[in-house]
Automatic annotation (TrEMBL):
Organism: Neobodo designis (Flagellated protozoan)
InterPro entries: ADF-H (IPR002108), ADF-H/Gelsolin-like_dom_sf (IPR029006), Twinfilin (IPR028458)
UniProt protein name: ADF-H domain-containing protein
Chain ranges of the ADF-H domain: 13-141
Subcellular location: Cytoplasm, Cytoskeleton
GO MF annotation terms: actin filament binding; actin monomer binding
Oligomer and partners: Interacts with G-actin; ADP-actin form.
Family per record: Belongs to the actin-binding proteins ADF family. Twinfilin subfamily.
Keywords carried by this UniProt record: Actin-binding, Cytoplasm, Cytoskeleton, Repeat, Signal
GO terms (BP aspect): actin filament depolymerization; barbed-end actin filament capping
SUPFAM superfamilies: Actin depolymerizing proteins
Amino acid sequence: NSFCTLLAAMALSVEFAIADGLNNALVELRTNLSKYRGIVVIVDKETLTSGSDLFVASENLDADFAQLRAGLAGKEAALIALSVDGRLTLVTFTPQDIKPRQRMIYAASSSRLRDHAKIVGDTHISAVDELTPKLFGHKESDRVALRSEAEVQKDKIAEMQAKDLKDGPQRAHAMHSMSTTLSGDALAATKAAIGGESTAAVLAIRDGAIVVDGSVAKDQPLESVEVPADEPRFVVLRRDQRTVLAYIVPDGCKPKVRMQYATTKASLVSELKKNSIDVDRSVECDSAAALPRKIELTFTAPVEDGGADAEAEAPAKKAFMKGPRMFMPGQ
């Protein structure tokens, strides 16, 4: 029986399509590995499609994996694209009693998904309860080491807030409840960027207000954006008829400065909306050099299946056979 399965697998030459919804989710997952834990993927009529929503990452890795296991409930087989240790890996779930045809289909589709999403690591499980952090060599005591950069900074900010409250409640309250306004020059620079008069507007926080820190001329590429090594910046630009707000947070930023910008982001979006500017995309990266690639990944797929907006522009490709269909065990 296993020999027949091997022969059938060698004969299978289906080009599995990637559903647009799944493609968008994979782009979101790959560009925000610290925000999301993963997604369950299934095969439906020779098309790879989402078997769940994106699972948001938390500080509790065990709880995250429990949610992923719950996402496998009722599925005879599945692929799980997940973020562990800051890298994207793939888990193939095929039970021992699965039909040979289904086992073969998921073995072939896992290769397709790895190539499409540029996934490096992969592993296999035959039971749902095998999907735990231990699968990647970690124990509960390792959870702190597994925390993302965002989680580490969150803890630092919490510690700083506690210190502020201890040293002076009034000072802490003033800092965290301060209203941040958008200066006239910042608004003008933003409108110029989304109107095509410049490539991008760079905004900073000064004395409780969001002001212009620089701009990229219309004839200059996005790579011309300049950001200091120890302070975040907001960058507003227009791409594919959509307004993008980029939040650049260099690794050298102090927690207090990082917190100031993080808590101001929502205020900036609100101020822009008051001036009839809707933010369609929001991205985050750790350097100006990484921004162009981050934007590219947000709007384009890793391969031929379309970009982040492909679902609204074109239907999923139909699966086709590269060669004649052959009989497979269990068909």
